[in-house]
Amino acid sequence: MRIFKSMSEVVQANTAAGYFFFAKETMTRFGSKVETPLMNGKYFITSETLGYSTGKRGFAIREVQENTTIRTVERYDTLEDAKGGVDKFP
Hints:
This protein has 90 residues and is α+β, with helices and mostly antiparallel strands. It has helices at residues 7-16, 24-30, 79-86, and strands at residues 33-34, 43-49, 57-64, 70-76. The longest helix is centred in the first third of the chain and has 10 residues, at 7-16. The mean pLDDT is 93.
């Protein structure tokens, strides 16, 4: 399994592979923000808006796959809970 050293390396590899997860247009459309640095070489947390009217954000643990696609592992209501959830994964 490929281990990445930083989020900038993940973004660069994902973009070079032709994916749009980190494209400005994609991030804007979903109100997405990368909330943490890379953890354990393949996990990071994002937040997204949950509705246009509420302004509430949801948090997701994301995993970088071997082919650099991004997989949602679990979703949480708070950033603190999401950070705690990463400990469950190697």
